[in-house]
Amino acid sequence: MSLEISTLPPPPSIPPTTLHMSGLLVDVYGLSSLDPSTTHVSCLWLHHPRTRNKGYMADIAARCIGAWNERDNTKGRGLVALAFDQRNHGGRLVEEKANGAWREGNARHAVDMFGGVRGMVVDQGLLLDLVEGYLFPDGAIKIDQHLALGVSLGGHSVWQLMFADPRVTAGVVIVGCPDYMNLLTDRARLSKLATYSTADSGASFLGSADFPPSLVASCANFDPKGIFFGPAAVPTGHAAPDAAVRHVFRERLRGKKFLLCSGGDDKLVPPRCGEAFVGWFKKAAGEWFREERVEVDERVYAGVGHAFSAEMVVDAVRFVVEVVGGAENAGGEEGRAKI
Question: What Gene3D superfamilies does this protein map onto (predicted)?
Fold first, then answer.
């Protein structure tokens, strides 16, 4: 998973403070550079890619913190960025083979990867519960806004986190997919698994030994497309969705902001795997449920593969600064987000 930033100026030097939080080592960026006048803090949670670790997120953390700190007037609001290792990654590594795909000899790829995605969301929820007590135990500074940014595997987990936790109100998804069932079915086809049949275009793959029934059920409970439609196809009609769909928008998504960044030439997480759901999701947010104020900004970068490209970095930094700038009691000129 490449980070293509050679055309960008170097980020500011913002070393992390590594803290133990509820059994996890968390790198916290920007803590030592908070202005003495800070009364409220926004937290940007960073989810790294598969086979990487929390250190991968140092560059984007520094760029976001630096851009926010350069604003003329933040009116007492600070920004910190936090990164921790995904399960079975970095300092939490248990079995390296489990991080591999089918082509790399991991027969349990679908279950293992979903476990990582879901595990990251569970771990994230616990940290949201406790982070203020670790960073500001005297209560003098309040944490009142949470954003998340994830890359690849971390992009999948940010998609799920945005549906799972009302406290996370904005998410940046870099080369992630909201339709785990379709993504893995397509990957099974490309991997030429025996459980993928061209006779039914892979329909029987879901529920097979390589994608067990329990995993199908988990996707229906936790993965965005599965939450709305289960294993069924995303509808292509123009009729407004039913009350159950409205309930999800109202109870899980109201007021949330999404920035979705995909590489047009990505072969590992092809945009086509999430295209049907994202198209439906944008229509639902922009037409059927406008009153829920869900904002979806989708960007597909031509010529970019499975990478966190320079253009994505620029757009992600700008999005983070704008969202934090829109938080209660944040002010000053928006200006141009610097990287």
Answer: alpha/beta hydrolase
